């Protein structure tokens, strides 16, 4: 099946620094990728939709200036957590779909997640 | 919140028993999907059922969908210890944006 990778798998950073997380679709092209965050023992919450070649669409309540998303190519999207604070500590997961149009009933393939700890 | 609800929140069974998880959602959907997540890991897609389908099978998995009640169930038959994980339903209301349920933590004891 389709494979999505994330890098790094875990990262520890100090308050005030920025952290970049990469999401790559390894064997398919994805015009659309999604970023989620998950707190311990909770569900996934969609943060934003990343569109190749255009600005990301953020969900209500997600600060676009804090969570910078860049979808530079059809196989790579990055999430940068700027000026990180301890409350940003979470599990960040990306997903991608091999759909060309971005519509329709296609399953998404999820990355393994990145655990961010801000000290 | 648009998030779906799942019950039970936690389920503990013995190997060989069946496990049933339920999911309720709030809006009209194109499809509903079930995912499994092992602790601290990414999600694994289990099964997708479209809004015009009522039941779907995949191996030991059986999913039902009742759009009139806005609910779905996932049945895992003859469970194994390796089935221990969290299970999430996710609804796709369009443009592939998934809204996840609250999840059911399943523990299967040998």
Inertia-based shape of chain A:
globular
User: What's the helical proportion of residues of chain B?
Assistant: under 10%
Number of strands of chain A: 11
Q: How far from one another are the termini of chain A?
A: 37 Å
Q: Which structural class matches the secondary elements of chain A?
A: mainly beta
Terminal CA distance of chain B reads: 38 Å
As a percent range, the share of helical residues of chain A equals: under 10%
Percentage of β-strand residues of chain A: over 45%
Number of helices of chain A: 0
Uncertain spans of chain B: none
The average pLDDT of chain B is 92
The rounded Rg of chain A comes to 14 Å
**What oligomerization state is this entry in?**
heterodimer
Give the topology.
The complex is a heterodimer of chains A (119) and B (110).
Chain A: E1 4-7, E2 10-13, E3 19-25, E4 32-38, E5 44-51, E6 57-58, E7 67-73, E8 76-81, E9 90-96, E10 109-110, E11 114-118
Chain B: E1 5-7, E2 10-14, E3 19-24, E4 31-37, E5 43-50, E6 55-58, E7 61-66, E8 71-76, E9 85-92, E10 98-100, E11 104-109
Parallel strand pairs in B: 2-11
Antiparallel strand pairs in B: 1-3, 3-8, 4-5, 4-9, 6-7, 7-8, 9-10, 9-11
